[in-house]
């Protein structure tokens, strides 16, 4: 069972959240760190400088850790401003073939900001009065993009190379099994057709059955591990 | 180690221009995503893994030193949570590679250039696994079949080729993001080309981008 799952979902949603926690977000700390430059040197980078009431950019996991200990306040990211989301929504609805540029983990970041910190009311702190408006807008943007993806999937006809820029990580993960699976099947059918056409023309050309040496074809065509292994 | 400024407006450029500008943690995450999405096993990142292990040991020492100092609790917590994240990434990377080793063990051991992509310990693991797996299969099934059909790698003893070896399917489709401009690239046997510009996201057969992934010009998502 673990194998099957691995094939379908290389990344579980929990793992997507884990990756999304590396996205940067602005915080205002209320502490300072007694190191040179007031920064914190971690394996993934030098974060800071941490000085009281001065903004700095840190990854989301760090912001969450600090917020839980009441050492900082979190600012909403610039792409989550109402005007910006309005503009993006308008463009998404207008342009039926392309996706608007959004941070690749926008769904996870938005979800985190709206739902975590249940005991400290993180969403209210971060967004203030605009909370419900921002929530609605993010949901509408998500729906518009999802409809576009569905429409695009419906037009799939063969094993082709598809270019889709600006697709978010969560959206990729959601369509991954269906999208890749159907393209794989299309490709398999295409190859079977080509093999059938190739075999047919051989038989038509000579009266005797084609004497292919045993080495060239296995006696039984084994079912290759497309979806199972 | 990079300092990130103006991060708010930088989300459009969230990917770095080239691999040399990335921190070790980002490179490890990228290597992990590549391994998860690719059907075959990729080159083991020996340097990266060694550096990460060394940094993790150093960080451990830092934590031990800071723990004695009571007013540095916050730093200790930050370091510890980050360490557990990096440890998870490293473990996941090694686990995915071992899974691929197990799935295609005969194929890997048969091809010297694929076997060269494994680290020493993985190669040893593959050899041991093959011995155990082979002897189990023989004892459970193959030895009970007629002599001519009891091979684990051939359908019948008369076939000269090893046609029962499970090999990775390189024609599976994958999501690929382009990291460097590469101009026009051939994407299938008919000679169709697509233009690879930085930041493009393609759904494409793995075989078409295999070389580019090995070079680091394309990453799998």
Automatic annotation (TrEMBL), chain A:
Residues 203-229 are annotated as: Disordered. It is found in: Nucleus. GO terms for biological process: DNA replication; double-strand break repair via break-induced replication. Keywords: DNA replication, Nucleus. One of its GO terms (cellular component) is GINS complex. Residues 12-74 form the DNA replication complex GINS protein PSF2 N-terminal domain. CDD domains: GINS_A_psf2, GINS_B_Psf2. Residues 79-186 form the GINS subunit domain. Pfam families: PSF2_N, Sld5. It comes from the Eukaryota. Belongs to the GINS2/PSF2 family. This is DNA replication complex GINS protein PSF2.
UniProtKB/TrEMBL annotation, chain B:
It is found in: Nucleus. Keywords: DNA replication, Nucleus. It comes from the Eukaryota. Pfam families: Sld5 (PF05916), SLD5_C (PF16922). One of its GO terms (cellular component) is GINS complex. Its main location: nucleus. Residues 52-138 form the GINS subunit domain. Residues 1-28 are annotated as: Disordered. Residues 168-221 form the DNA replication complex GINS protein SLD5 C-terminal domain. InterPro entries: GINS_A, GINS_bundle-like_dom_sf, GINS_Sld5, SLD5_C, Sld5_GINS_A. Transmembrane segments: none annotated. One of its GO terms (biological process) is double-strand break repair via break-induced replication. The GINS complex plays an essential role in the initiation of DNA replication. Belongs to the GINS4/SLD5 family. This is DNA replication complex GINS protein SLD5.
